[in-house]
Amino acid sequence: MRSRAAYALALTAALGASGLAGVALAGPAQAKAAARPYDFNGDGRRDLAVGSPNGTVGKKKKAGFVTVVYGSKSGLNTTKRQVITQATAGVPGAPEAGDLFGASVTSADFDRDGYADLAVGAPGEDTGAGADAGTVTVLWGSPSGLKGATSFGEKGSAGKRHRYGESLTAGDLQGDGRPELFITVPGTSTYTWVSFAGRKASGRNGTRSSYDVDRSWIAAGDVNGDGRADVVYAWFDDNDPEVAHRRGLTLYTANAWGGFDRNKTVYTDVHALTVADFDGDGRADVAVGDTYDSPWVGGSVTVFRGSPLGLGGSYALHRNSAGVPGVSTVEDDFGAALAAGDVNGDGRADLAVGVPKADQGRVFDSGAVVVLYGSASGLAGRGAQAVTKSTAGVPGTARAYEHLGAQVALLDHDGDGRADLTAGIPDADGGNGGLTCLRGSAAGVTAKGAAAVSAAALGVRSKNARVGILLGG
Known about the structure:
It is built from one helix and 29 strands. By secondary structure, it is mainly β. The strands form seven sheets. The chain has a five-stranded antiparallel β-sheet. Strands 4-3-2-29 form a four-stranded antiparallel β-sheet, with no helix packed on it. A hairpin with an 8-residue loop joins strand 21 (337-341) and strand 22. The longest helix has 10 residues, at 7-16. The radius of gyration is 20 Å and the shape is globular.
């Protein structure tokens, strides 16, 4: 957008020269241990949050909403669901055209009451600071599910087109069992975070850059193994694609003073990001999806290993890697979406990779998901699985331009200790969208009991929902 070749140097200097410092409010300690993310009703099973930022609310186009489907012993239970908008009782604000409520979601038990909460970004929200200043809403968990909410915007320096809340993640910055909420502000190419005391939030902005970017991502995990959450901030700017510094990621490692130190910046193309421990060494690794056809046709995933010093060595996987199902084809978009979770229950994270433009024979852009499994040496092609609508046991028929795998999630919805796969199909059913759901097992994802979930089953058909364009987890 407005920056030039020196963009990334300015970014890393602005964000990393003195580190960032968070502010936590004093408050009474919570008696309960924090719930696992996405377990909104505390029943031990993860629930699914489906964002529809382009969805219509009333007559307000792109006001956006979030659909929550609750887990059960048999997996996702579509009869137990909520559709949450800014018109929902207890949710602050009002739906307005272009708010994009549901453009990002993340989960943690922010108030430490034993029920996971859901943070929802609305980067298109207009505020007193200007158009598209952006807000974040935290929906609070309870025994009956999500109930009540708190909304807030950027602190101190909010402004027009800052798009506060475009990407969200959660992590325990101080290692004290109290998760923080991390928020990107792409209009200033930086991130900030919020700490909670009960349901009261306080935070601050990081040192600011004068540049904006087209897209931002954020993910958290303990990359150096010191017991504190580290943060990876990634950015992508479509302007001047020849300039490498317009795209990249920076690792910020948590320090003992409740802030971050800039660890390492890698200039690379980023289209998806996640952090998880794929080799089981106790340190989280950073996985980056790159959909471009160079250096590998069809796209690729690069994994940067966690180490005591931060980002370590790296390796890449693509559809021509040994053992990875399928054959790389131009514009497959392998790596367009990433999600990490332990599918087979071996204690190591596995990776679901969205390939939304994969063809099934002459059925173009039907889409696919490839699941790569963790091992002592990291992710490997050995044992990898491909899931499409042509896979035996998977419901439905492969259709052109549905884009299965545009988003993916790995969460244990049935409580058996293994992550289940949900793949978004946003362009199915004439753009209403839908989901394909497979359960995890000791042998990996299984089509036994696989389910298809339509927009109509979620009560959001004909609202431009594009169900599956954004999935939590």
